[in-house]
């Protein structure tokens, strides 16, 4: 068959810098065949509501509309 590429993606948060509104920038980390790149999503989220191990946003409240909207944008 054809060539097989090794592909990996994960959402990361740059929590070493927190803006005055309490959020940090979100990035998507992509690795293809050993080449790595960090792409800014131009989105921000509170670091306390981010699961670093899973690379997932966590809801800030039970009916967090922003959480649902951002997750939809990130996953598509």
Overview of the molecule:
This protein has one helix spanning 65-75, and strands at residues 7-13, 24-32, 35-45, 50-51, 56-57. The chain has one domain (7-75). It is globular, with a radius of gyration of 14 Å. With 76 residues, it is mainly beta. The strands form two sheets. It has a three-stranded antiparallel beta sheet, with no helix packed on it.
What topology emerges from the helices and strands here?
Layout: E1 7-13, E2 24-32, E3 35-45, E4 50-51, E5 56-57, H1 65-75
Antiparallel strand pairs: 1-2, 2-3, 4-5
Main attributes?
76 residues, globular, 1 helix, 14% helix, mainly beta
User: Which range does the strand content fall in?
Assistant: 35-45%
Which strands sit side by side, in order, in the main sheet?
A: 1-2-3
Low-confidence stretches: none
Would you tell me the overall average pLDDT? Answer: 91
N-to-C order of helices and strands: EEEEEH
* Number of E strands: 5
Summarize the structure.
The chain is 14% helix and 41% strand.
